[in-house]
Amino acid sequence: MGQGQSGLILARGAMGRTLTFLGIESSCDDTAAAVVRRHADGRAEVLSSQVEGQSALHAAFGGVVPEIAARAHAERLDHCVERALAEAGLTLADLDAVAVTAGPGLIGGVLSGVMLAKGIAAATGLPLLGVNHLAGHALTPRLTDGVSFPYLMLLVSGGHCQFLIVRAADQFERLGGTIDDAPGEAFDKVAKLLALPQPGGPWVEAEALKGDAKRFALPRPLLDRAGCDMSFSGLKTAVLRARDGVIAVKGGITVQDRADLCAGFQAAVAAVLAEKTRRALEVYLALSPDVPTLAVAGGVAANAAIRGALQGVCEGLGVTFTAPPLRLCTDNAAMIAWAGIERHLTGGTVEADLTARPRWPLDSAAAPLIGSGKKGAKG
Ligand code: KG4
Ligand code: ZN
């Protein structure tokens, strides 16, 4: 058990001992709780990870409805925590601290998690740490593969898209990111345009396998601009125009037209991500890291064509490519528990007055990102 009062930091002598943290995540449309242990030898172990998706609740609206998400989190989070403890075979008395996503994200959902975590901390006396959701994603390669600092991280999901040099558990340098839609968001919108189900990424990928990527000349946005910023909104509009062009001629689109549009779109996203990754790696490699590593996280990292393109860039530059297993790549609470442990080990203090933050950039020195996609602020 941790120190008896929230507001205290964990005993500093805890550095070399086993740490067991509860993680809570509710910043978007996944209600999640997990228990993660860091053994005294530094080995990390996910003792449990419970994730309850809300897709069914939002399906009719074509996107995440913040009020519905917040209510569902408030209703389900405590059950989720109970199941995470049961799966780990532990009780609250076995924990050293509680880590909760305190932002960035949809504020109602973040508040649901923060309120529950505060309640648990008040009732048990466990220390409470507020974790940045993006830090959770960015530190996951250390949980799953023990990757050492500094490494380059590419977050590509439905809500995030950015390159980060992770120098330490509390030191992130953003090299660039999307200036409008996240790639997953673009996959979802393209799927919608082509009457494919949501979330669209896996459907577009399956269609693309049957298509000709060269038939439609789709743009490679921002490749002509120096740096690592990206844009995917215009690409989606280009798919819409290409689709309407076919409809104008034929009065509709065939199964093959749809496959060709998907293949062209996916090839464009892969080409942009590959080239921007090459540029980000150039900046990162200038740091002369001992084991140069690119880690990817987020649902879009599941796409085989995109993964293959990124792997190709890494091979060309002698960089190790790593991607956490998908269940830890997408939103989950194990990454929050782990980020809490890392934060504690770097001297992070416990906040008695923890507040929920809709926006919370990891790199406060970087220019703010514009827009806030279907899943809320991109941080
Ligand atoms: O990381 P994630 O589960 O949630 C957040 O957005 O935070 O990512 C979900 C996104 C969705 O937009 C989904 O369409 C996309 O990842 N996605 C894919 C694939 N699988 C999921 N995009 C492209 N290809 C895939 N195979
Ligand atoms: Zn996320």
Task: Indicate the topology.
Layout: E1 19-25, E2 30-38, E3 44-53, H1 55-58, H2 66-88, E4 97-103, H3 107-124, E5 128-132, H4 133-145, E6 151-156, E7 161-168, E8 171-177, H5 183-193, H6 201-208, H7 233-250, H8 255-285, E9 293-297, H9 304-317, E10 320-322, H10 326-329, H11 334-345
Parallel strand pairs: 1-4, 4-5, 6-9, 9-10
Antiparallel strand pairs: 1-2, 2-3, 6-7, 7-8
Bound molecules: 5'-O-[(R)-(carboxyoxy)(hydroxy)phosphoryl]adenosine (KG4) and zinc ion.
Task: Compose a concise summary of this entry.
This protein has 379 residues and is an alpha/beta fold. The chain has helices spanning 55-58, 66-88, 107-124, 133-145, 183-193, 201-208, 233-250, 255-285, 304-317, 326-329, 334-345; strands spanning 19-25, 30-38, 44-53, 97-103, 128-132, 151-156, 161-168, 171-177, 293-297, 320-322.
Overview of this protein structure:
This protein is of the alpha/beta class. It folds into two domains: 171 residues, 2-Layer Sandwich (Nucleotidyltransferase, domain 5); 176 residues, Nucleotidyltransferase, domain 5 (2-Layer Sandwich), CATH 3.30.420.40. It contains eleven helices and ten strands. The strands form two sheets. The chain has a five-stranded mixed β-sheet, with helices on both faces. A five-stranded mixed β-sheet has the order 8-7-6-9-10, with helices on both faces. Helix 9 links the parallel strand 9 and strand 10. The N terminus and C terminus are likely disordered. The structure holds 5'-O-[(R)-(carboxyoxy)(hydroxy)phosphoryl]adenosine (KG4) and zinc ion. 5'-O-[(R)-(carboxyoxy)(hydroxy)phosphoryl]adenosine binds next to helix 5 and helix 6. Zinc ion (ZN) binds next to helix 4.
